[in-house]
Amino acid sequence: MRQLPTPVTRSIWVVRALVGWGVVATVLTVVLRDDLILAWARGNQAAQEVLDEGGLEALRQSSIRIPGFVALTVTLLVVYVALVLVLVAFLRGGYPWSRMVLTATAGSTSFAIAVGLARYLPPLFAALAVGALLLNLALLWFLWQRETTRFLRD
Q: CA 147 to CA 94: how far, in whole Å?
């Protein structure tokens, strides 16, 4: 097997960091679910009214559907991990299309994170989101270095 150039190795490290970030975000979603519900309710007039009148328990008992933050986050993590495990294997193997799909993945997750930042998030989640954006930028930087391009062409 060919020696991986430094930018390819660093791309893989960044993907691992993004997976770790995803695990941390998922655990925090489980642990801080109530904080996420309260943040969501701020943007939903009906939910905010119920919350103001009777608190979080009243909101849970109401007919208003609270988003399934935990189920969504766990599902996203599983899908993301499965996708990047496959893509990293192909990147290691020198398949040029893997860089394109990793780029699209970083771009689409960055877009979703940016949309999420446009809404109110608890400060810890906002900080995690900014960190993920920076990691995605680092991934793109390493994926598009000249050494990576040469490796994928050989």
A: 12
Q: Where are the alpha helices (DSSP H) in the chain?
A: 6-31, 33-42, 45-61, 69-92, 96-117, 123-143, 146-153
Cβ atoms 107, 115 nearer than 8 A = no
Helices 146-153 + 96-117 axis angle, to 10? 140
> In sequence order, what are the residues at sequence separation of 6 or more whose Cβ sits closer than 8 angstroms to the Cβ of residue 64?
44, 46, 47, 50
Cβ–Cβ < 8 Å for 59, 66: yes
The whole-angstrom separation of Cα 70 and Cα 44 is 19
| pLDDT tens, position by position, 14-63 | 999 999 999 999 999 999 999 999 999 988 889 999 989 999 889 998 98
CA–CA separation, 25 and 77 (whole Å): 9
pLDDT at residue 1 in the model:
61
Distance of CA 42 to the CA centre of its chain: 23
